[in-house]
Amino acid sequence: MPKLSIITINYNNLEGLQKTFESVFAQTYQEIEYIVIDGGSTDGSKELIAQNKDKITYWVSEPDKGIYNAMNKGIKVANGEYIIFINSGDTFFNETVVDKLLSIDNIYDIVYGDHNLLKIDGSETVKHFPSLITISYLLLDTVPHLGTRIRKSLFDNNLYEESHKISSDWTWFFDALLQKVSFYHCNFIAVNFRLDGVSFINHNLGMEERLLHLKNKHPDYLLILSKYLEKNTEVINLKKQIEEIYSSRWIRLLKKFNLTKL
Predict the structure, then answer these.
(1) What is the per-residue DSSP string for 20-85?
(2) What share of the chain is helix, strand, coil (3-state, %, to 5)?
(3) What is the mean predicted confidence (pLDDT) over 138-150?
(4) What is the share, in percent, of the chain residues with pLDDT greater than 70?
């Protein structure tokens, strides 16, 4: 049995898939089972996968029912002791990332690093994740999904919820934390993550799905998060009022000295 299964999902992202392939194939760690799940792309992705079939353990190109349906397909055929997701367009930070992730003690169930965030304007910034994942942290943020080493047995009879479009990785991590699954943070950048993906663009939908999950499974935590969001909205509105008052005073001052046309 291979120690690691890397899973890539893709749909009509030929350029991104090429970058991901180059990143995976460049890894110094070689005991990899590589699985590619394509959603029936028509942009040449299928042909690219076929061209690299000698480096891919398993691949399929067929219509699916969304991101998490595709991920579940990959999990079901994976044979590794651990799984790492790296989706099309995203890349490992360097060629030694997988080596580093696999060098961490086997006692940990979920091993994650930091993310290098690639913004739409071309700039970059590093997202540092905490060493200790707590309920209070996870209610407001998340554990990185891409480039994270996850013990494959955690998915036994516990796949991603396919009814959610963008938040099933968060709900899966949240439930795992409540079940006392162990997390370990690596103090290095694991992934270059593009901020143009569906989960980043549809932030409001993501929060709606989180709230629905808490309502259905963890109502006590739903109450806590709802109260926080209410208070946070109040704080944001107060800040806006302060800025409006500050700005209006400056405008009056400029008008007083006839400087508004400068």
Answers:
(1) HHHHHHT-S---EEEEEEE---SSSHHHHHHHTGGG-SEEEE---SSHHHHHHHHHHH--SSEEEE
(2) 45, 20, 35
(3) 92
(4) 83
| Beta carbons of 191 and 86 less than 8 angstroms apart | yes
CATH number, domain 4-217, options 2.60.40.420, 3.90.550.10, 3.40.50.720, 3.40.1160.10: 3.90.550.10
Q: Which of 7, 71, 10 is nearest to 46 (CA)?
A: 10
More confident residue, 203 or 160: 160
Report domain extents, the chain: 4-217, 219-262
Show the tokens assigned to 197. 């993906």
Average of per-residue pLDDT across 132-156: 93
CA 44, distance to chain mean position in Å, is 25
- Residue 69 to residues 7, 57, 137, Cα–Cα distance (Å): 13, 20, 27
Provide the pLDDT for residue 196: 72
